[in-house]
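Materials and Methods. Structural model of Phosphatidate cytidylyltransferase. The 77-residue sequence of Phosphatidate cytidylyltransferase from Orlajensenia flava was retrieved and submitted for structure prediction as follows.
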Amino acid sequence: MTASRYAAARSAALAVAVVVALFVGSVAFVAAIAVAMVIVQAIDAVIGVTIKDRLKTFGPAATALFNLAALIWMLLA
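The predicted structure was written out as tokens:
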């Protein structure tokens, strides 16, 4: 239960940062938030590997890859 609360708090913080980024309109700020999201999801995937849980590995890994692709797309646009 404690681990899920930490995860929820982390997700809530990132969600608030994303909403702020939408109103600020700074590409650098949005990129920084995207990098943070990619790092968090990649670490979650590594944790999934260490506990041998395929769902907790492939879900975060896919999310990290999609977020990274979106970041690259945004920066190249």
